[in-house]
Amino acid sequence: MEGGVFKYKAINVIELISSYSKTAVAVFSILLLSTTAVSANECDTSAQGLTSVDCGATPSATFDQNGRLWLTYVQDQHVYVSHSDDFGESYSPSVVVNKIPEDAEHNGENRPKIIVDADSNIFVSWTKKTSPRFTGEIRFSRSTDGGDTFETPRTINDDELFTGHRFESLFLTESGHMYVTWVDKRDLEANIELGKDYAGAAVYYAVSSDQGQTFSQNYRVANNSCECCRIAIAPRGPENIAILWRQIFGVTTRDHAIAVLTPDGKTMEMGRASYDDWQIDACPHHGPSMVQSGKSGDYHMSWFTNGDLHQGIYYARYSFEKASPEDVYQVDGSAGAGHPYLAEYDQTLYLVWKAFDGQQSQISLIKSIDDGKSWSVSEILRSTSQGSDHPLIVNKDDGLFLSWHSDEHGYVFEKFAGRALGLSYVE
């Protein structure tokens, strides 16, 4: 239906559903869950009891090895998982991950994450907010039966402190090591007890080598990180990862650092990844994006800054061998631009971001065919005058998909690069 979005809804009788074009369509169902096209503003969950990605918040999505789309989102203090076999045209009934309600974070910088491994195990992580402001726990659950049920959620941070553990990221390496990274304030608490000054927070991580059955102890990567920005992850060989995060340099300079992490807790090759000279004694709430180049093996990075040297969204390519950013490029210097996201397909680099022009939020795209040395003219993929989430890109072997949620359109999942759509899920 033009202007409609898909949701799961129990229908007992024939009913009329109006789309944005105000076309009335008769829909018939006999006491069954069915996929129906309804407008996003029908998501009054208290009145209708809808549980769907359109009515939920901050979805994340991934494809499994058979082409099935899996996604997770938050609604009414529950984390849910659903799947689609037709590229998001319809979705399975959602399965609750945490049966006991908890205050799961659901903002653009801090959303649940989902990964599916080669054995069809499904892994989900999120941040649980606790009572005081800016405190939380890193939560994890998995399904070993194809998404029918999920294990009781576990807390990954091992300090048992009532403090900040937030902004987790989840990544599975080629070797099967699963990393969880997050922003952690245990060292801030320790320094306060000693009467010492401590700026910001710290970055910690833990690793599972047995498909999420157990996790290692918590390892500290760096002190004095920013308190509330997402951490970007990309592979560094078959078992290590590279991470990119906003770090406090000196007293109040909040630029970016990069490092390599190993499964046994070692931090290597740490360096400074951006030189914007942003002097701010607060958290910008703008995390970076990063993807490894298929051409050079370097790391494409994109981030937001309001520094003395640079303002707006920027791109650069980082080489661990040279330990410096190269081809620094201003993507968008307008006041309303932010939250970039990078992906690579068929040796072409794609960058999407969100910008507000005073009336509408627009999701824009540029691409590079020469490893980030030059960029195309920007094009607009989507726009809305209502509230919306940050844009994400989901990779598949035959292309790239925009993953984006807005109050106007509900959940948008659409292909923008690669081969034409074909059959998706294969048993």
Which secondary structure elements does this structure contain, and how are they paired or packed?
Blueprint lengths: L4 E7 L3 E4 L5 E4 L4 E7 L6 H4 L8 E7 L5 E7 L2 E7 L10 E2 L16 E4 L5 E8 L6 E8 L10 E2 L9 E8 L5 E7 L1 H8 L7 E8 L10 E7 L6 E5 L3 E10 L3 E9 L5 E6 L16 E4 L6 E8 L4 E9 L4 E9 L4 E9 L2 E9 L4 E8 L10 E6 L7 E5 L2 E8 L3 E9 L9
Antiparallel strand pairs: 1-4, 2-3, 5-6, 6-7, 7-8, 9-10, 10-11, 11-12, 13-14, 14-15, 15-16, 17-18, 18-19, 19-20, 21-22, 22-23, 23-24, 25-26, 26-27, 27-28, 29-30, 30-31
The CATH topology label of the domain at 291-427 is Neuraminidase
Main sheet: strand order: 5-6-7-8
Reading off the top of the CATH hierarchy, the class of the domain at 291-427 is best stated as Mainly Beta
Percent range for β-strand residues: over 45%
* Secondary structural class: mainly beta
Rg from Cα: 21 Å
Task: Give the uncertain stretches in residue-range form.
Answer: 1-40, 423-427
Tell me the total number of β-strands.
31
Q: Report on the biggest sheet.
A: 4 strands, antiparallel
Helix fraction, binned, reads under 10%
Figure out the total of helices.
2
**Approximate shape:** globular
CATH architecture grouping of the domain at 291-427: 6 Propeller
Mean pLDDT: 89
Task: Please give the alpha-carbon distance between the first and last residues.
Answer: 29 Å
Commentary on this structure:
This protein has 427 residues and is mainly β. Among the domains are: 49 residues, no CATH class; 137 residues, Neuraminidase, CATH 2.120.10. 3% of the residues lie in helices and 49% in strands. The chain is built from two helices and 31 strands. The protein has a four-stranded antiparallel sheet with strand order 5-6-7-8, with no helix packed on it. A four-stranded antiparallel sheet has the order 9-10-11-12, with no helix packed on it. Strand 22 and strand 23 form a beta hairpin. It is globular, with a radius of gyration of 21 Å. The N terminus and C terminus are likely disordered.
